[in-house]
Amino acid sequence: MKNIDKVRKELQQTGKYMMEYGIAWGNSGNISARTSEDRYLITASGTFLGELDDADLIECDLAGNSYGTEGRKASKETPMHRAVYEQRPEINAVLHASPFYSTLVAASKIDIPTNWFIETMYYLEKVERVPYFHPGSEELGEGVRAKAKSANILLLENHGVLVYDTSIREARMALQTLEMACKMLVVSQSAGIEMTGLPHETEREFIEGAAYKPRRNWNF
What we know:
One of its GO terms (biological process) is pentose catabolic process. Pfam families: Aldolase_II (PF00596). It comes from Cohnella cholangitidis. GO terms for molecular function: aldehyde-lyase activity; metal ion binding. By secondary structure, this protein is of the alpha+beta class. It has one domain: 3-Layer(aba) Sandwich (L-fuculose-1-phosphate Aldolase), CATH 3.40.225. 38% of the residues lie in helices and 17% in strands. The protein has 7 helices and 8 strands, in the order H-E-E-E-E-H-E-H-H-E-H-E-E-H-H. The chain has an 8-stranded mixed β-sheet with strand order 4-3-2-1-5-8-7-6, with helices on both faces. A hairpin with a 4-residue loop joins strand 3 (57-61) and strand 4. Helix 2 (78-87) packs parallel to helix 5 (138-147). It starts with a helix and ends in an 11-residue tail after the last helix.
């Protein structure tokens, strides 16, 4: 079992980071991190990510139970987080947000390029779309469950994004990389700038052999 106080602190820092860098706004978004094989901490309903207190993070298990809530309710988006943890035992953090440019792309049919720069080749290697379902619904949870093994980034159509990875830090990096890539995509199209991506063979060589980061294991 992980040190729950350490996980709580990391989530508080991540919420503040997301607000400071414009990845989250208002009381939108919810974040979680695994504390043991079958438990995780998740933000409470209606919390402000930039100012998370200890009581704003509720421990839940994969059976749907909550612990030590003291009248607080876990985020209504818990079905999405639970679906990822159930499908991907190696995942330790799930971030849901509605960043401006990423959500713009999620509400369109634009494809996100993966071959523009190093970080996109690594973090955006696999991106999937989940059709719109009402926030917090079991249908949305099942939509995420169906795609959880196919990617580490899900575009929730007309809703936002869901990013998950083996650590809170990696998930945060992936979320910021996604927003930067989407911003570059929208700005370049608006300015009439034709971006030149790397050849897909070069992209494949980087993913398989570059020393920048270890090759991700997609053999689930």
